[in-house]
């Protein structure tokens, strides 16, 4: 092989190797960016899941406090206890601004489109009351937006009849 061709071939080989190294480095950088993006997405999903779990826990605690206050108002003969329960409910309503709780729309849909008696007959009374409260809250929310809707849901607490 003539010397010029050999020098030219070596030059082309060196350029090809440099290009391959540059390409490998760029590919490695892109893979690192992809891994970083996946990690950031996983962190965002974890934050969203934590926030949702905290919201559900908070809403469950509020629902339980509301249930206890309603029970106190209905059954207590102590005037101060009834007043404190009413004050607590007023504070909860002020904080939640009367908005329905997460899950209320789902319970309302079950009541509206399902066989409510059949669905609730195997529940405990506390579970039935919780579901009925959710339906009533969501119905009140809908009635606030559209006054033409029925004011009172019928046959909601069938177990009380």
Structural notes for this entry:
It contains 5 helices and no strands. The longest helix has 73 residues, at 3-75. The protein has 161 residues and is an all-alpha fold. Helix 3 packs across helix 5 (125-145). The protein has helices spanning 3-75, 79-96, 104-113, 116-120, 125-145. It starts with a helix and ends in a 16-residue tail after the last helix. The protein is rod-shaped, with a radius of gyration of 32 Å.
Sequence of secondary-structure elements: HHHHH
Distance between the termini: 106 Å
**What is the radius of gyration?**
32 Å
Beta-strand content: under 5%
Oligomer description: single chain
Roughly what percent helix?
A: over 70%
Largest sheet: none
Q: Spans with pLDDT under 50 lasting ≥5 residues?
A: none
Mean pLDDT: 84
Overall 3D shape: rod-shaped
Number of separate strands: 0
Structural class per helix/strand content? Answer: mainly alpha
Fold topology:
Elements: H1 3-75, H2 79-96, H3 104-113, H4 116-120, H5 125-145
Short description:
The protein has 161 residues and is mainly α. The chain has five helices and no strands.
Top keywords for this entry?
161 residues; mainly alpha; rod-shaped
């Amino acid at each position: 092989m003539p010397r010029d061709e050999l020098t030219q071939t070596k030059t082309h080989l060196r350029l090809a190797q440099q290009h391959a190294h540059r390409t490998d480095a760029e590919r490695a950088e892109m893979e690192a960016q992809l891994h970083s993006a996946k990690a950031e997405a996983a962190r965002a999903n974890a934050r969203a899941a934590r926030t949702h779990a905290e919201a559900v826990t908070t809403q469950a605690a509020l629902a339980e406090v509301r249930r206890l206050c309603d029970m106190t108002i209905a059954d207590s003969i102590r005037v101060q206890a009834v007043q404190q329960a009413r004050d607590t409910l007023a504070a909860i309503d002020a904080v939640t601004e009367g908005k329905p709780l997460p899950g209320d729309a789902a319970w309302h849909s079950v009541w509206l489109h399902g066989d409510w008696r059949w669905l609730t007959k195997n529940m405990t009374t506390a579970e039935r009351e919780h579901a009925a409260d959710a339906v009533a809250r969501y119905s009140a929310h809908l009635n606030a937006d559209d006054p033409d809707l029925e004011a009172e849901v019928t046959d909601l607490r069938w177990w009380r009849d």
